[in-house]
Automatic annotation (TrEMBL):
SUPFAM superfamilies: Mitochondrial carrier. It is a multi-pass membrane protein. GO terms for biological process: transmembrane transport. It holds the Pfam family Mito_carr. Gene3D superfamilies: Mitochondrial carrier domain. It is found in: Membrane. GO terms for cellular component: membrane. This is S-adenosylmethionine mitochondrial carrier protein. Solcar repeats lie at residues 2-75, 82-164, 174-262. Belongs to the mitochondrial carrier (TC 2.A.29) family.
Length: 267
């Protein structure tokens, strides 16, 4: 099986595994970042709200990311860019592509998690009625601007850790669980650094502040959060986010690496 198809399949398995298994932590993070406050947004109730739409979007989103990432790396190999620069470029393009699927899913999922709609159907109808199709892409560029720095930290670090693991073993091999551990550590670090961008993205997707005043643009939203709630609010949900992405990184990269190994061994 060619590397591109392998990346598509392995990425889909990885995305489905992490998005469905860790939905409760994602919901807690979203509610901590909600302008309504944690309890008003749902607290610890119904932590699997939006899991259906998340599962539906996780497979194509992760598949598209890894397809783009691996294809870009292969095309840039041997060129003027260093390995680190190649990995950053590949990860950035992967995120731009994946967000075409991820952002509509996030818009529905986060509105469900914050208690704005009781089910996926009403969320879909509500977004369409209020904003039309463009409503599903609210926060697209904010998400991209969050995901690109995240991936520019996570993926080169993940690749470097794998190289170091293989070097220490002496034969260059990396077990699936070792790739998972490297992904967990790199993801947790990237998650902490990019939490302010995640808060802004969440506010834009939820739509308005507690007084019903709509958020408008990433910079304006960031300024309003700092002005009205203090700079510390930009780190809201950092604990669950780091914990979720740390664990999620292990699940994600284990599923990806293991699936790739199995597919490559079968050919």
């Amino acid at each position: 099986m060619g590397v591109d198809v392998t990346a598509l399949v392995a990425g889909g398995v990885a995305g489905f595994s992490v998005d469905t298994s860790l939905m409760p932590l994602d919901a807690i993070k979203t509610r901590l970042q909600s302008p309504m406050g944690f309890r008003a947004a749902g607290g610890f109730s119904n932590l699997f709200a939006g899991v259906g739409v998340a599962a539906l979007g996780s497979v194509p989103g992760a598949s598209l990311f890894f397809f783009t990432y691996e294809t870009t790396k292969a095309n840039l190999a041997g060129g003027p860019l260093s390995d680190y620069q190649t990995q950053m470029a590949a990860a950035s393009l992967g995120e731009i592509a994946a967000c075409l699927i991820r952002v509509p899913v996030e818009n529905v999922k986060q509105k469900r998690q914050a208690g704005l709609f009781k089910d996926n159907s009403s969320a879909l109808r509500g977004i369409m009625a209020r904003q039309g199709y463009s409503g599903f892409y609210t926060g697209y560029w904010t998400t991209v601007l969050r995901e690109i720095p995240f991936s520019m930290i996570q993926f080169p670090l993940w690749e470097a850790l794998k190289v170091e693991i293989g070097r220490r073993r002496g034969d260059g091999t990396v077990h699936s669980w070792e790739s998972a551990a490297a992904g967990s550590a790199s993801g947790a670090l990237a998650a902490a650094v990019t939490t302010p961008l995640d808060v802004v993205k969440t506010r834009l997707m939820l739509g308005s502040d507690p007084k019903g005043v709509p958020y408008d643009g990433a910079l304006s939203t960031l300024q309003r959060v700092v002005r009205d709630e203090g700079a510390g609010k930009l780190m809201a949900g950092v604990g669950p986010r780091v914990f979720w992405i740390g664990i999620g990184g292990f699940v994600y990269f284990f599923a990806y690496q293991k699936t790739r190994y199995l597919l490559e061994e079968s050919t």
